[in-house]
TrEMBL record:
InterPro entries: Laminin/Netrin_ECM (IPR050440), LE_dom (IPR002049). Disulfide bonds join C84-C96, C104-C113. PANTHER family: LAMININ SUBUNIT GAMMA-2, NETRIN/LAMININ-RELATED. The keyword Disulfide bond applies. The gene is LAMC2. Residues 84-130 form the Laminin EGF-like domain. This is Laminin subunit gamma-2. It holds the Pfam family EGF_laminin. Keywords: Disulfide bond, Glycoprotein, Laminin EGF-like domain, Repeat, Signal.
Amino acid sequence: MPALWLSCCLCFSLLLPAARANSRTPVCDCSGKSRQCVFDEELHRQTGNGFRCLHCSDNTGGIHCHRCKEGFYRQRDRDRCLPCNCNSKGSLSARCDNAGRCSCKPGVTGDRCDHCLPGFHTLTEAGCTQDQRLLDSKCDCDPAGISGPCDTGRCVCKPAVTGGRCDRSV
């Protein structure tokens, strides 16, 4: 008989938080991204609210479907999470900021980290490699403004660029 009484008490204690949830106040706070949740006793002990959302939509996740999954972003709360599409070779991770811009490896540029900066070449897992031909010790050229290697101690500027270092627009 004591075992039956103990099991009834245990069952009642697990159902009590769920029963309290049947009032008119919403218990599944899923940020509008899910209509399903389950009661989690451990979460209830930690936070005072034990309801965890299930099947979050729009590429969201978390206890309340409140954040984008890794590799997704959104500009405002309640917006749909959009894919970052970060280039796997050129970006530091699959994450991006709230504008969809990825964090790039050295020598790499672009919102998706998908091409090399001027003066760099060959996008690899380590980033882009600086063009050694442009780093002639006889010249102090601006890599963004030169079209090729130093020519007898003089910088060779791109069209519409001028200056001894190729550092001024025409």
